[in-house]
Amino acid sequence: MSDGGASRQKRRTFAVFVALTLVVLIAACGRSVTQLPNDAYVWQRKWTPSVNAAIQQSRGLVQSWHVLAAEKDSRNDWTVVSPDWATLAAAGAPITAVVRIDGQLDDLDSLPVARITQLADDWKQHGAPLAAIEIDHDCATSKLAAYTRFLAALRARLDPAIKLTITALPTWLDSPALDALLTQADASILQVHAVMNPAQGLFDPTQARTWLHAFARRTQRPWRVALPTYGSRVTWGDDGRVAGIESERPMLLANGFAQGLSHELVAQPGQMAAFVAQIQRDELRGLAGIVWFRLPTDADERAWSLTTWRAVLSRAPLTSAMSVDVHPNAQRGGLFDVSLVSSGNADATLPAVVRTDAACQAADGINGYALDYDARGMLLRRVQPGLLRAGMRRDIGWLRCGETDHHKVSVHVEP
Fold first, then answer.
1. Looking at the predicted structure, is the pLDDT value of residue 212 above 60?
2. Spelled out in words, what is the top-level CATH class assigned to the domain 38-229+267-313?
3. What are phi and psi of 216, to 5 degrees?
C-alpha cells in the first residue's frame, strides 16, 4: 500500500474511532438513573380502618410490605400481632413478616426459633403472600456471634421458599463478626435513622451516606436502606439522660417554654427526597431499594401525610406554602383566632415565628406556639419543631384586638 493509501486508511480508522466514542458518550449522557424500588413497614400493632385505607391507597407505589408480626420484649414476653388478613391478601405485593426482638434481651440462646417457624406457617394458612421472615434485632455488637448462631438455626428450620432477612445497624460496621452474620441472611436492611444520640437528631444525611457506602463494601448479598417518614418526641431527665422517646403515640403539643426538656424530632420530606436522589446517583453495589419506616395513616400524627409520602415515593417535585388565616372568634367579639394553612403536596415545616403588626391588647399561643415579645412587639413563637400536613390547617393562637376589622389585622410568618 502506498503512503497516501496508508494515510487515508489511518484517517478512516480515526474517524470510525471518533464516531464510536461519540456514540458511547451520548449514550452515557442520556442514561437515566434507575429508580430504587419502595418497600414500607406496617408497624401498627392495631389494624384500624385508617391502616387498611393507607395500604389500599398506596398500591402500585410499594413493591413489598414489611409487616410487624410479633415481638419479644426484654422480659422475654412474646406478643403476636394480628393483621387484617383480607387487606394483606388484596395488597397486591409480597409480604415480609417482621419479628421484633428487643435489643436489651440478654439471653440470645432463648430466641424463639420454633415460634418464628410456627408464625410463618400460620401466615401461609391465612393466605398471606408471605415471601420472607425479617428479624429486627438491635443486637449489641459484642453479641453478634451468638446472634449469628441463632440465625443459622432459624434458617435451617425455615421453609426454603421463604427468604430470611435481617435489619443491620451502623454500629456493626467495624466488627469482624459482621461478615459471618450477613451470610446467614438472604438480604439485609441497614437502618440509618434513630441510631444516633437523640441530641444529634433523627437523621443525618451526610453520616447516613457514609454508612451506606461502608455497608456496600461489607455485604455480598442484596440489601436495602430503611429511611424515616415520622417524628419522635424525646424527653430528657434532670440528669441530662434520655428519659423517654415517643414515636407512635399521638403528638403532645407544648403550650409554653416550660417544656424545655422535651424536643420533637421530625424527618423532613424535602431532605429525604434529596437523599434518595443522591443515593440513586451513587448506584451503590447491591442496593436493592428503600424500606420506608413507617406507613403513614390519616390517624398517625407523627408521620407524614399520605399525600406527601406518595409524592416522595413517586419522586414527584415537592411543593409547599405556608400562610396565616386570621378570622373572628364566633363566640367572643374582639377575639381573633390565628391558624396556619399548608398548601401544596408537601408537609410544610412550622414557621419559627408568626408575627402581628396590629395594635392588639392580648394574645396567646396553642398547639406548639407561645406568646412572646421582642423589640418589634408581640409575636407567637414556635416552642417545638414540627410539620403541618399538606392541605391541612392548625390553630396556633388568638389575638384580642378590640373591634378591629379582621381584614385589617396584619399577621405574617417568619421562617
1. yes
2. alpha beta
3. -60, -30
